[in-house]
Write a structure and sequence with these properties.
Blueprint (H helix, E strand, L loop, with lengths): L1 E10 L3 H11 L6 E4 L8 H4 L4 H4 L9 E2 L12 E2 L21 H11 L6 H9 L2 E3 H5 L3 H7 L10 E3 L7 H12 L15 E4 L4 E2 L2 E2 L2 H6 L8 E4 L3 E10 L2 E12 L2 E13 L2 H11 L2 E2 L1 H4 L8 E2 L11 E8 L6 H6 L1 H14 L11 E5 L10 E6 L15 E8 L7 E3 L10 E3 L6 H18 L10 E4 L7 H11 E3 L24 E3 L5 E7 L14 H17 L2
Parallel strand pairs: 1-2, 1-13, 2-10, 5-6, 13-25, 14-15
Antiparallel strand pairs: 3-4, 7-17, 8-9, 11-12, 12-13, 16-19, 16-22, 16-23, 17-18, 18-19, 20-21, 24-25
Helix pairs in contact: 1-16, 5-16, 14-15
Length: about 550
Amino acid sequence: MDGPVFDHVIVGAGTAGCLLANRLSADPARRVLLLEAGGRDDYLWIHIPVGYLYCIGNPRTDWLYQTEPDAGLNGRRLRYPRGKVLGGCSSINGMIYMRGQARDYDGWAAHTGDAAWSWANCLPDFKAHEQHWRLDVGTDEAFAALHGHRRTGSTGEWRVERQRLRWAILDAFAQAAQQAGIPATDDFNRGDNEGVGYFEVNQRAGWRWNAAKAFLHPVARRPNLTVWTGAHVAGLRLEGGEGAPLRCTGVEVVRDGQRLTVHAAREVTLAAGAIGSPQILQLSGIGPAAWLRPLGIPVRADLPGVGANLQDHLQIRAVYRVHGARTLNTLAHSAWGRLRIGLEYLLWRRGPMSMAPSQLGAFTRSRPDRPWPDVEFHVQPLSLDAFGEPLHPFDAITASVCNLNPGSRGTVRIRSPRWEDAPAIAPNYLSTAEDRQVAADSLRLARRIVTQPALARYRPEEIRPGPQYQTDEELARLAGDIGTTIFHPVGTTAMGPDGDPMAVTDSRLRVRDGRGGRIGGLRVVDAGIMPTITSGNTNSPTLMIAEKAARWILAGD
């Protein structure tokens, strides 16, 4: 069925899509359609910070993906959460505000040959939407220069706040980390995130602050902005080929049991994420010919990079039992403790129900000879066997550590021509010798921190992986047993310079045609365009990408 015409069609109302819809529809002359396969973000547990426990693994808010069996994880499969709701992953993630390191973006600039991606040129795009609590109360000029809004101080939409709780055991871990040589920091977002401190979070007054609240709902009444939920994109509408320039003129949408073509007079922007965007491209015949032809999909653009270059942060969860310290384990096992937790949140919007999945962070070097911080700790006052399992009945902490710059590369690959079928996700974790070495070194570093004097009175005992494992080989194998995703997939539609056979987009995020040109009217704007993963949590870098892309789209660049 033939459908309506818009100037811009944005596929995916997640982190990038919500910002893009806000910025593009600010021009009243542009008709903007935002498509979301999931529903509205009116589920209460989206907005209570601890509600991620009820959103991940819930078909109302999660795509429910799983990875393929992974040799690096000793054959295990992992649950692979991706947001399927307005706000996307910002509605179910850990809420941590983290930009990464300056070297990440300078590396992108060098790789693409485009200085627009340097740290100096990305910083204004971070600041364009940031609203930081420290600027509410006044702060020093150096901090304001890194976080102040480009026009009038802290007036952006993306709220950044302090966490509304502290734990004595986490304070002791921070002191132990300093005794182990990791400096204290009160700002992980200066471009050099080395240090230990409490994470800042995307919350407002104890509620989750997702991209839909920040960017979409405030402009939802604009007459030139249309939002469709429950709208699955089955493929792109492409015209040309056979010697003629290829152009994307719309999308095939399945909604309310009907399939219709929505036309884009100016541009289609894929913002479906590092899993969804390559899936849509492949379904449309844009991707590796060697993958598409056996499925009977006509190849419109042979781009081997579509679905390749998958990168993710694998967290290795070291668990330590502690004594004489209050943790969430025993607090939550007590009926009085649960009542206290509920009342604390109901009355003051603080306490464990307001907490992000990880509270304390540390960025440091896995070994002293590393040239920059290459690992990140997420430290929690709790422990469990696996996500979704019950908390342990004894007090414990979890010191999860991830390799910030993994060398392992995986794939996202459609299984069939059916849009309903989930793609095969194969991260290939720990598939390089270097990644396995960093895993072993990281577990030793966690051990070194917990043996410092600041934690001595809590008598930490290693439960996982276990002190009996000491060699590199043993620790790398155990990392495969206890490692899990930290939900940061990127890179599957990576940008790159002309002549790079694996580059899916150019540095302005326009999709290549496989013949040295571009597919007209088609861009990708999400974490998939990252050529290399950022050194930290990936949600806010995705907003920065969308901010930059929105300016280019409005300028016709």
